[in-house]
Amino acid sequence: MEIGGIISAIIIGIVIGVLGRLVVPGRQRIGILWTILVGIVAALIGSAIASAFGVADTKGVDWVEWLIQIGLAAFGVAALDRVKARR
């Protein structure tokens, strides 16, 4: 992976993480760095899932891929928040 790919993964991870955090109701007890990490992981896994279903490369904006990524980020934020709350 080139430096451009790493930078774009970080930027997409930030956007996906923030959108995922906005989807989860209530206050989350995780920091912004955890949100970014969850977003990056959700973006990578969401892209793989979208590719597996054949919806990763469409004409125009890949809305289905974005929805998968945001859903995974919301799930990740909620799961990490619950883990942090138990400690």
Plain-language structure description:
The model has no long low-confidence stretch (mean pLDDT 84). The N and C termini lie far apart (36 Å). It contains 3 helices and no strands. The chain has one domain (3-86). It is mainly α and 87 residues long. It has helices at residues 3-23, 32-53, 63-86.
Give a summary of the structure in a few sentences.
The protein is mainly α and 87 residues long.
Query: What amount of the residues lies in strands?
Result: under 5%
Overall number of structural domains: 1
Query: Residue share in helices?
Result: over 70%
Counted beta strands? 0
Shape: globular
Order of helices and strands: HHH
* Rg over C-alpha atoms, rounded to the nearest angstrom: 13 Å
User: Helices and strands: which structural class?
Assistant: mainly alpha
State the separation between the terminal residues, measured CA to CA. Answer: 36 Å
Query: Low-confidence runs (pLDDT<50, min 5 residues)?
Result: none
Provide keyphrases for this structure.
single chain; mainly alpha; 87 residues
List the helices and strands and how they pair.
Elements: H1 3-23, H2 32-53, H3 63-86
